[in-house]
Write a structure and sequence with these properties.
It is a single chain. The protein is an alpha/beta fold. It folds into two domains: 171 residues, Rossmann fold, CATH 3.40.50.1970; 208 residues, Dehydroquinate synthase-like - alpha domain (Dehydroquinate synthase-like, alpha domain), CATH 1.20.1090. The protein is built from 15 helices and eight strands. The strands form two sheets. A six-stranded parallel β-sheet has the order 1-8-5-4-2-3, with helices on both faces. Strands 6-7 form a two-stranded antiparallel ribbon.
Length: 395
């Protein structure tokens, strides 16, 4: 087991009707003016936005509204938010939505008090924010885990790059998590979320060559089995509270570093997918992951068949073939692919809502190597040639 540091300071307020406590929670911190950041019209149609604003009004807290965040949140929207926060003297950002809204809020929080720094430099690993606005969230989609994580992913439309940036400033002060708010999430988005939660743990589980992480392995395996069961239950009955609760809590645990402690962590398939949805913004992140993951797994599993076989046996209930562990590994990957299909998730790039073309793979792989400046580590190192092989396998 590798050395590690683990600190997740986000306070989680979990359960029914917890969104109605927004004003009370924020008042306890002493904030005076809040930006409520959200996406499209769903928070209005559902009445959630009215509940939040009423709660703030009852607590005597001033607020402004800033909506319009899209899937795969953009730098331009975040820059707009930074200007509003400075002009309006906002001292707290409340994200109401899923991972895209929360990531946009994190970017705004990083940039607002540091106008002298181009915020894109954070995502290019050229600078870190000296300070940031505090922020919290009311979660409406179980998927990204951004509600408690230190990660933030933003797309720069000018250069077509989608990049992630981890920083302690990204840990929200609090996350309000009411599973009931996810009852109306579409089947497709529920499936995307289930995939994303699984991937955050799978990519830690399969992320490197570290041995002797028995406890972390068991935590990860238990979480994945629970998500697999809950994903199926929520797919069959969108208002299954216990299934939705499992997915919501698992989303936070899957990406707040717990399921990878003591191991190397490189989200290889996430990196490949960032170039996919950076090139084709209409591709939902979870759908891109499901379309790529099994091809990546088949491409690299021969380099560590016992690790993939352990996953197959413990999570997918495949019988161990001691004479041919690679067969066990491949059987496990097939069961994973079948599970994605059962949720109506794509398992090939041609099944996505985008016209993905082979001629784009060179550009995508070049960007994924940071224009030749990196090789992705992992069970098998991936350079540009290997990345293009995986994109083609997934086509």
């Amino acid at each position: 087991m590798n050395n590690f540091e683990y600190c997740v300071p986000t306070k989680v307020i979990f359960g029914r009707d917890t969104q109605k406590r927004a004003g009370e929670i924020i008042r306890e911190y002493g904030f005076r003016k809040v930006m409520i950041h959200y996406g499209g019209g769903s928070v209005k149609r559902s009445g959630l936005l009215d509940q939040v604003t009423s709660s703030l009004e009852e607590a005597g807290i001033e607020y402004i509204l800033f909506g319009g965040v899209q899937a795969n949140p953009t730098l331009s929207k975040a820059l707009e938010g930074m200007e509003i926060c400075r002009r309006e003297n906002v001292d707290f950002i409340l994200a109401v939505g899923g991972g895209s809204v929360i990531d946009s809020a994190k970017c705004i929080a990083d940039g607002t008090p540091n106008p002298e720094i181009d915020p894109w430099k954070y995502f290019m690993k050229e600078a870190v924010p000296p300070k940031a606005l505090p922020h919290g969230n009311i979660l409406t989609l179980s998927a990204s885990g951004s509600e408690t994580s230190q990660s933030c992913v933003i797309t720069n439309e000018e250069n077509g790059l989608k990049r992630g940036f981890n920083c302690p400033t990204h840990r929200p002060l609090f996350a309000v998590c009411n599973p009931e708010l996810t009852f109306t999430v579409s089947r497709f988005q529920t499936g995307c979320g289930t995939v994303d939660i699984l991937m955050h743990t799978l990519e830690r589980y399969l992320g490197g060559t570290t041995k002797d992480t028995a406890l972390t392995d068991r935590i990860a395996e238990g979480l994945m089995k629970a998500v697999i069961e809950a994903g199926t239950a929520a797919d069959l009955n969108p208002e299954d509270y216990e299934a939705r609760a499992t997915l919501m809590w698992a989303g936070s645990l899957s990406h707040n570093d717990l399921t990878g402690l003591g191991r190397e962590v490189m989200m290889t398939v996430h990196q490949l997918e960032h170039e996919l949805s950076g090139k084709y913004p209409e591709v939902a992140h979870g759908a891109g992951l499901s379309a790529l993951f099994c091809s990546w797994a088949r491409y690299v599993c021969g380099d560590d068949p016992m690790r993939f076989a352990q996953l197959a046996v413990r999570v997918w209930d495949v019988e161990m073939n001691f004479e041919n562990p690679l067969k066990t590994a491949l059987d496990g990957i097939q069961r994973m692919e079948d599970y994605f299909k059962s949720l109506n998730m794509p398992v090939r790039l041609t099944e996505l809502e985008a016209d993905v073309k082979d001629e784009d793979f060179d550009e995508m792989a070049e960007k994924c190597t940071n224009f030749g400046r990196r090789v992705l580590p992992g069970i098998r190192e991936l350079g540009k040639h290997e990345m293009m092989d995986i994109y083609r396998m997934a086509l």
